[in-house]
Amino acid sequence: MSLLTVRDVSHIYFSKDAKTAALLDISFSVREQEFVSLVGPSGCGKTTLLSIMAGLMEPTVGKVTLEDEKVHPKSRKIGYMLQQDYLFPWKTVEENILIGLKLTRQLNEETRRKTLSLLHEIGLRGVEKQYPAQLSGGMRQRAALVRTLATDPKILLLDEPFSALDFQTKLKMEELVYRTLKHYRKTALLVTHDIGEAIAMSDRVILLSNRPGTVRKIFAIPEEIRALPPFLARQHPDFQRLFDMIWKELENLEPSEQRTPS
């Protein structure tokens, strides 16, 4: 069953002197408990599309629905996690992770207890009264994940949440997010530049073309890779073959100056 549906979405940015097409005729759906990644060249509109899916922007054409209802920015069904953790530095970790519940008027003793329990489950026991500046980057991102999950969203939209972390911490966060989302049976959509990350975490990878972004190709990740946690998935014999396939497609989209593969 489709949880999120993107239908015929196009988007144009208008300025005083020009208009720029960012997205063109994009359609796909995300099923319940599925993990989907969006990859593509820089400037192809991945973050624009994510903002539209979050209801933060209206597409010029088309629509996005969640459980057959048009998405809107105040929806409790959508959790949004960004590259920056955006924890309030003047609030404690406990205050930060409870802020979504407070803003949506869901904060009570039961939801507070569940949120603190999740904080402990992901390895942050004992930091409740500390401030963000006292935490490492990985710990801050864990706290941001707890804050995102606290309101029990139907789908998580993840905008390169690990890109600012060192490689070892990034791998640990991939494992943590994978296990947590599987345990709580969550649906997620990840925007990333890292092909390896997309393959290791996803059920499907959607490749967008150069601007204006269109769906160039959708790669289904084989069951034998999907069944493994990210770290082990990267070691599967078919992982490199799939990586090379997606990289080749991406390379064909890019101008002559190529980036180094992630």
What do these coordinates show?
The protein is of the alpha/beta class. Helix 4 (109-121) packs antiparallel against helix 5 (137-150), helix 5 (137-150) runs parallel beside helix 6 and helix 7 packs across helix 10 (239-253). A hairpin with a 2-residue loop joins strand 4 and strand 5. A six-stranded mixed beta sheet has the order 6-7-8-3-9-10, sandwiched between helices. Strands 2-1-4-5 form a four-stranded antiparallel beta sheet, covered by helices on one side. The protein is globular and about 50 Å long. The chain is built from ten helices and ten strands. It has two domains: 1-77 and 160-165 and 173-229 and 248-262, 3-Layer(aba) Sandwich (Rossmann fold); 85-152, no CATH class. Keywords: ATP-binding, Nucleotide-binding, Transport. InterPro entries: AAA+_ATPase, ABC_transporter-like_ATP-bd, ABC_transporter-like_CS, ABC_transporter_ATP-bind, P-loop_NTPase. It holds the Pfam family ABC_tran. This is ABC-type nitrate/sulfonate/bicarbonate transport system, ATPase component.
What would a concise description of this structure say?
This protein has 262 residues and is α/β, with parallel strands linked by helices. The chain has 10 helices and 10 strands.
* CA-based shape: globular
Q: List low-confidence stretches.
A: 256-262
Regarding CATH, which class of the largest domain?
A: Alpha Beta
How large is the radius of gyration? 19 Å
Level of helix content?
25-40%
User: What is the CATH architecture descriptor of the largest domain?
Assistant: 3-Layer(aba) Sandwich
CATH-wise, what's the superfamily of the largest domain?
A: P-loop containing nucleotide triphosphate hydrolases
Beta-strand content bin:
15-25%
Total count of strands: 10
Assign the structural class, choosing from mainly alpha, mainly beta, alpha/beta, alpha+beta, or little secondary structure: alpha/beta
Determine the number of helices (DSSP H or I, runs of at least 4 residues). 10
